[in-house]
Write a structure and sequence with these properties.
The structure holds two protein chains of two kinds. By secondary structure, chain A is an all-alpha fold. In chain A, about 75% of the residues lie in helices and about 0% in strands. In chain A, helix 4 (about 55-65) packs antiparallel against helix 14 (about 315-340) and helix 6 (about 85-110) packs antiparallel against helix 15 (about 355-375). The two termini of chain A are about 40 Å apart. Mean pLDDT of chain B is about 90; it is low at about 15-30. Chain B is built from eight helices and nine strands. By secondary structure, chain B is mostly helical. Classes of the chains: A mainly alpha, B mainly alpha. Chains A and B meet through helix 2, helix 3, helix 5, helix 8 and helix 10 of A and helix 1, helix 3, helix 4, strand 6 and helix 8 of B. Chain B: Its main location: other. Chain B: It is found in: Cell envelope. Chain B: This is 4Fe-4S ferredoxin-type domain-containing protein. Chain B: Keywords: 4Fe-4S, Coiled coil, Iron, Iron-sulfur, Membrane, Metal-binding, Repeat, Signal, Transmembrane, Transmembrane helix.
Chain lengths: ~400, ~350
């Protein structure tokens, strides 16, 4: 090995990205040790009034919503027959699978006795609980996503026979995925229907499950655009012509759909407001924040998407996607943290600790690293030469 | 075979989600168990002596408090139940002077915690107590989110075996025929233990006997579907830290709608999506067929034209060759004739 290649390898290992990722990983490991030796109290700001913090609000609620690209893309391609989006299915499935796997991983920090996470499914079923529904669906959907992901892995490993068997299951798996996603995306919202006295009326609604489901579609469509944009530069050399040729068409198509679904979401939110006759809250401080969420993170991106599609302007659509992704995070934070326990005096309200933020960053970093590892090795952004034009 | 088995398993899983839930989510009302017992707290009798707190601490063998139970200065700051204290007394300043109110688990008739728990760690017992089983608890703390009275507390300091802690209504003592610790110790009879419907009668009797002294309401009779632990007071309940905006719907009623939609989605979505798939597939097929037909059409038209052209060319060629033959014959005849003429001339010359 020449001196040049050694230098090149060294340089490639200590990129700014890798250094930051390394620091986050080390910090995460330190907090992990603290969490499992000192308890939740040692690393979080959770207390008796605020049992759920950002590990639920971000890692679980946002994680699941932003992983919705898996079911939206595969449904568009395989159920609705929009074959031109085919090249986006694999990245979306991989993102969704990693997203859900990380949700489950992050839950190990939040729940008191993580090794008992299978209990609700295998030991004693609390079927009256919406959390049971969430747990069962996430468990089943994670399995479905894994199976949907395996063809890429089998192609990489050269296991033709089993790969062909799994490919035949595609439609059944896609439909299962949509059913399970509908159920748990909506029941994450339904979790909060049990606490009308704790969630601010502007965010509390009997329609919370519907709001969560519809907004998860917005999140899924926007995440595919957003994530495609993020991976475009570092992964460009891996993308085949089909992916690159269809990329702009996909952005236009998904942008159009996202514009419509966001508009629909805005409408049903207004209907929810009218149904509970909560208009008078709009003049309060919470009302102002509610309007920021509704106008800035729902109406505005819907409008931007529409303009972007009309003018065929990819940059405008990409900005709309980023705004929608941020809007989903704002919405899930509002419901689980900002508007939750609104009745408490400000001294008793929750704000995340550094330990909690570190673990959330830790989880996201692991996701990015695994995504990079898998997509640089397996046929994700390109078709495997042995199976060109097959699926 | 793999596909069938897999689908079968998933179908079974879907059905198992759907069946028990639909039964629970039917919106049926269940009255309290006939033996349901409870406690009536009378805020006009409580003097804030904290003896109930001390008794609770003793009978439940809880850790020693930071300040002793006879130190009443703790009443100056509002407290809530936590993992070391199942009950607390708070002091509220009202128009008529300080009023004391005890707080603990209200042992709801249809408990939000039991409804929310995904491992059934909470259970409403026939005697009225809401029990907790730490041996299955995962520690998700959804019970704490769900409880409208913010009662369950969590052992945040326990790294590996944290429990949710709350008043047990002294279920072990009830089983021995004893009173709950706090009720037994109260020096002012601010606490009355008994069958729940009896307690409501006692509460009504007191309100009726002293109409000016009490607010005409038994708190907990209907709040959140009713509780085993109830309150009467001389001051509005919101002034002694009890929310009056909770409504009368029980926790299971609040989530019934969302749970009822599960079997509908499981049943309807595959049909709907299957239909959409069939339509899109059919659309593709029709489009494909049309394309094939168009190609065939074009091909046959082209073939027809080609044949016609060939025919024309052939007939043209035939006439051309005919003419050429005629010309050749003519030429031959002319040559023959001229040859004959020459012969004749030669013979004439010879002759």
């Amino acid at each position: 090995m020449s001196a040049e290649t050694v230098a090149a390898e060294k340089k490639s290992l200590f990129t700014p990205f890798n250094i930051i990722a390394g620091i986050i990983l080390i910090a995460g490991l330190v907090v992990t040790v603290m969490r499992f030796t000192g308890g939740l109290g040692a690393v979080t700001n959770l207390d008796q009034n605020n049992p759920w913090g950002i590990w639920i609000g971000f890692d679980l609620l946002c994680g699941v919503a932003l992983a919705a690209g898996g079911y939206t893309t595969s449904a568009a391609c395989y159920v609705f027959g929009l074959k031109k989006y085919h090249s986006a299915v694999r990245p979306a499935i991989l993102t969704a699978f990693l997203g859900y796997a990380l949700v489950v991983f992050a839950l190990h920090y939040d729940v008191g006795r993580p090794w008992r996470l299978p209990y609700p499914i295998f030991v004693q079923q609390g079927t009256t609980s919406l959390l049971f529904e969430v747990g069962l669906c996430v468990f089943l959907y994670l399995t479905v996503l894994f199976i949907e992901f395996t063809p890429a892995m089998f192609e990489w490993l050269g296991m033709k026979k089993i790969r062909n068997v799994v490919v035949k299951l595609t439609l059944a798996l896609t439909i299962m995925g949509v059913v399970l996603s509908t159920l748990h995306q909506s029941s994450l919202g339904a979790l909060f229907t049990i606490a009308p006295s704790k969630l601010h009326p502007l965010w509390y609604s009997q329609y919370l499950p519907v709001f969560f489901f519809v907004s998860s579609i917005c999140a899924g469509l926007s995440m595919v655009i957003f994530e495609g944009t993020l991976s475009h530069k570092p992964m460009h050399h891996l993308m085949d012509e089909e992916y690159l040729d269809n990329h702009d068409g996909l952005i236009l198509g998904f942008g159009k759909a996202a514009s419509l679904v966001l508009f629909g979401y805005f409408s049903i939110k207004v209907i929810g407001l009218a149904y509970d006759n909560n208009w008078h809250y709009l003049t309060t401080g919470y009302g102002a924040w509610f309007l920021v969420e509704m106008l800035g993170f729902v109406a505005l991106p819907s409008f931007l998407y529409a303009i972007g599609v009309r003018d065929r302007s990819i940059p405008v659509i990409k900005w709309a996607a980023a705004l929608t992704v941020l809007g989903i995070v704002v919405n899930r934070f509002n419901i689980s943290l900002v508007a939750f326990n609104y009745q408490l005096p400000s001294a008793q309200r929750y704000f995340p600790s550094w330990g909690e933020i570190t673990i959330s960053l830790f989880v996201v970093t692991i996701g990015v690293l695994v995504f990079r590892f898998v997509s640089t090795r397996m046929p994700i952004f390109y078709e495997h030469p042995d199976y060109k034009g097959e699926h | 075979m793999l596909r069938r088995t897999f689908l079968g398993l998933l179908g079974a899983a879907g059905a198992s989600v759907a069946l028990p839930m639909s039964a629970k989510a039917g919106g049926k009302k269940f009255g309290p168990h006939p033996d349901t017992q409870g406690v009536l707290f009378d805020a006009t009798r409580c003097i804030g002596c904290r003896q109930c707190e001390a008794a609770c601490n003793e009978v439940n063998e809880l850790p020693a408090p930071d300040k002793k139970f006879d130190d009443l200065s703790v009443l100056d700051t509002e407290r809530r139940t936590d993992e070391k204290t199942y009950t607390i007394v708070n002091k509220y300043q009202t128009e008529t002077g300080p009023v004391f109110r005890k707080s603990q688990c209200n042992h709801c008739l249809e408990p939000a915690c039991a409804s929310a728990c995904f491992v059934k760690a909470f259970k409403k017992e026939p005697n009225g107590a809401v029990s907790y089983d730490a041996s299955v608890c995962v520690g998700c703390r959804y019970c704490m989110v769900a409880c409208p009275f913010s009662i369950p507390a969590y052992e945040y300091g326990e790294p590996l075996t944290p429990r949710v802690m709350k008043c047990t209504m002294c279920a072990p003592r009830l089983a021995e025929g004893k009173l709950p610790g706090c009720v037994e110790r109260c020096p002012k009879e601010a606490l009355t233990f008994g069958p729940r419907d009896e307690l409501i009668k006692i509460a009504r009797a007191r309100i009726n006997a002293f109409p000016g002294k009490y607010v005409d309401h038994v708190y907990g009779e209907h709040e959140m579907g009713g509780t085993s632990w109830m309150y009467i007071s001389g001051q509005p309940f919101s002034e002694i830290g009890l929310r009056e905006d909770l409504g009368t719907a029980s926790a299971p009623e609040l989530t019934a709608g969302a749970l009822a939609s599960v079997p509908i989605v499981v049943g309807l979505w595959p049909v709907l999506l299957g239909g959409i798939y069939a339509v899109s597939k059919r659309k593709d097929k029709i489009a494909n067929d049309e394309r094939v037909m168009a190609v065939k059409d074009a091909l046959s038209k082209a073939a027809d034209q080609a044949e016609k052209k060939l025919h024309e060319e052939l007939s043209k060629a035939e006439t051309a060759s005919q003419r050429r033959i005629e010309v050749e014959v003519k030429k031959a005849v002319e040559e023959a004739l001229s040859a004959k003429d020459e012969d004749a001339e030669k013979s004439e010359e010879e002759a």
